[in-house]
Design goal:
Number of helices: 1
Radius of gyration: 34 Å
Number of strands: 9
Order of helices and strands: HEEEEEEEEE
Structural class: mainly beta
CATH architecture: Sandwich
CATH class: Mainly Beta
Largest sheet: 4 strands, antiparallel
Helix content: 10-25%
Number of domains: 1
Amino acid sequence: MTKIKQILSIGLLSLISTSAFAATATQNFQVTATVEGSCKINSTGELSFGTYDPLSTTDKEATNTISITCSNGTSYSIGLDGGSTGDIDNRAMAGGTDNLAYQIYQDSSHSTVWGNTPGTDTIDGTASSSSDSIDLTGYGVIPAEQDVAADDYSDTITATVTY
């Protein structure tokens, strides 16, 4: 039994002495990433005025919603172009040989035209969360008593988010 104990003792000592001489070295490294601001337009609901009566003395009003999502902390500007006229101040829907004038405003009081020049006539803001949708309302108005023929009228507006 003594020889077995000696062999076991030598084996244990060799294990202990090997781990006693083990050494380690460490060094730190950096982990980096750049997060870019980003925005996307989710939807641009149709601005539908329905039926317009050119003999009515009341302006025809309608609204639409433009929905965007931007990454947290990203500043944005949402602009609307002038449509087929290319002129934000003189938007018009085409129908047959006539044009039906209309306008899109940023506010329900119709005091601020919604244009396409960032910082001037766009809707500007900063996203507070990447998971929140930002919904903006466009307030459309067709002025009353326009002398236009009975027809279907339409225009295409391009919404742009600048960030």
